[in-house]
């Protein structure tokens, strides 16, 4: 169904962690050829959370500038997408709601389907705005990606939060219909409730992702979507940035285009700049790709951007957005660069210590070490409750 009124992303802001580990440090520790990291998987560094950071502190840090710029009037819904949930019942979004001082007349809910969750949130938000164009929805994607030490996945860890304000007449990107969707029941990556680190079958996960690219594109075209040549760029979920290249080659082949590497590079190069220094931020990653594209492209006004969101397990969605006239006046390029540049590099021993840090689960009173210099921190655990504070 065609709609007259544009709905989409009105503002976008991201945050990442206090610390960063360079892949050169990891390579030196485990004897890996650095070219495998820099070129084989396309990663240069990974964001590492401090002991007093988590998805809530990153999410609040990402969303605070949005609330500061637009106020909270009109925000009646907060959708928090994550697969690194901090509670089995309560939405992480409620903590963010408090930290940002949002109105009590708000619905808040958490969504999960691996790295796809934020795209579900975005689409649900669009539906809510279509029902009442006066409303705005705060969509937050926040994740900490954690694999076992010394496992193949270790080099693809990372952490970040992206906050997006979704509304009518958006200032950045209009989201179009239709969407192409795809679900297949695969065990490529999962995290049972009793584990902190994910379990993954790396090669199977790459295959499952590529199948999902084909499946969601097929549905997208059957639903009457745009032709491949319409798109100026493609934002893929980037568990590691080379995955976007694998996926795009798969799409070009599937569409019978053959693989022209200049074209692949033109379609993707600007989308990897944040993910290759942040690492996998799971459900935030595809929207970090969008941030990198918008922040760096000369001018995408009225150009179509393709989005491929993939969440292991698996669900995928292909959809299109269009950069709206004047979008460059609303970008947060400087703040985004600062979020990356402000991180403090850690050595390997410190990184391992942070990786292995976990809170006692005894319900006692445990203060967290004060490590982060960000605006929000996880100050303590008390009576099984997380206690956050604002600086
Ligand atoms: N110089 C240059 N390139 C090198 C190299 C060197 N010295 N050594 C190896 N490489 C290349 C390899 O050829 C390979 O490239 P291709 O895939 O293009 O052939 C690449 O570096 C990686 O090498 P390996 O496959 O040998 O690496 P690995 O066995 O250590 O595992 C991985 C790689 C499977 C991605 C692993 O990091 C992993 O399990 N990651 C977590 C799972 C994941 O990210 N899956 C992605 C799809 S699932 C998803 O998207 C959801 C999600 O967020 C998890």
Automatic annotation (TrEMBL):
BP terms from Gene Ontology: acetyl-CoA metabolic process
Name recorded for this polypeptide: Hydroxymethylglutaryl-CoA synthase
Family recorded in the similarity comment: Belongs to the thiolase-like superfamily. HMG-CoA synthase family.
Pfam families documented for this protein: HMG_CoA_synt_C, HMG_CoA_synt_N
Highest taxon above the source species: Bacteria
Alphabetic keyword roster: Acyltransferase, Transferase
Originating organism: Streptomyces cupreus
Stretches of the chain forming a coiled coil according to its record: none
UniProt-listed NCBIfam families: HMG-CoA-S_prok (TIGR01835)
Gene3D superfamilies, alphabetized: 3.40.47.10
